[in-house]
Amino acid sequence: MFMKKIILLNNTAQNILGFRKHLVQFLLAHNYQVYAMATDFTTQTKKEVEHLGAIPIDYTFARGGLNPFADLKNMKQLEGIFKQIQPDILLISFSKPVIFGTLAAKRAKVPKIIAMLEGLGYTFTEQPNGQSLKAKIIKQIQVFLYKIALPKADTMIFLNPDDPKDLLDRYHIKVKKREVLGAIGLDLNEYKYSMPPSEPISFIFIARLLREKGIFEFLQAAKKIKDKYPYTIFNVIGSLDTENPGGLKKDELEYYIGKNIINYPGFVTNVDEWIRNSSVFVLPSFYREGVPRSTQEAMAMGRAVITTDVPGCRETVLEGKNGFLIPKWDVAALAKAMEYFIENPEEIKRMGEESHKIALEKFDGEKVNQKLLKIIEDINNDTM
User: Fold this and answer.
1) Do 34 and 21 meet the contact criterion of CB atoms below 8 Å apart?
2) pTM for this model (two decimals)
3) Helices 346-362 and 293-300, interaxial angle, to 10°?
4) Which CA distances in Å does 229 have to 25, 232, 332?
5) Residues 315, 319, 324, 326, Cα dihedral to 10°
6) pLDDT, tens digit (0-9, with 9 covering 90-100), for 159-217
């Protein structure tokens, strides 16, 4: 039987192995030859991708940076790779690959180009003190490049309904077809329901320790709650990013550890165990998420959620049913939501069960992959 070739153009090997593994296996089962492209393959990660059944391909691109000559050179490299492989379909993720991968694919005459933006990123994220001049300039450049590249894709996929409005509609970018996929989804066999503990009550934060992820609001709310309910536990899982200007500093982290306000185990590989041993999941992010992966994992395992009413995050919570949506940057509202669970511990189990039901419906990777395959094959049926 003829096997169709599909290239998954990602930015990192970790993204493929962590978030695309299920999709790769799904596509292979549906008679696709899968090529997985990343900028940072090692010998080990290539072996892991090959073990999945896909073919790893290196390419070069700086995830950040504003060197147009380097970007054009790398785009030419992509064009050469596409011409050599001659894929039937190209599925591209993340901003820079979407822009330059789409342009390269068009030049290489790839028959079907599907571009997916899993969130609009920090340049489209409102900041407490307004955006910096640099962020405003980068945003203008991004919008300009999107206007050139996105109309050349056969389909644009977004994960939440806010992003196409805030990008395509607001900036008058016309595309051939748009789809809202919802979350990328999980292999639910890896994140099974467990009864949330409520004695003692504990809250867990899982993200890089950055301002836009809400770590400062989480810590301040934890301090307020700890003063009133000293036996409450606060777990923080995530790495410091000292190079990021919005990152939590080491001495700030050590202050909260030293005051016994939080538990911080450092880097962990058993995130699921930490979720299992926590009562409620908290992500006070003001970053424009696609649909946050960590929230999906916590919901699949049956945890109530406190998160912010911002694009992507709001897709995970039905207010009062499986958790609470709070305004961004609002420490008082966050502490109030936490206090609700402390004062009403029976709600931890009830809302956790609702989270699990929502995860089964919305975040099942098998269902998401079926929907994505339908998008891919509907395109094929329309134009081939």
Assistant:
1) no
2) 0.86
3) 110
4) 47, 6, 15
5) 80
6) 999 999 999 999 999 999 999 998 888 889 889 999 999 899 999 999 989 888 999 99
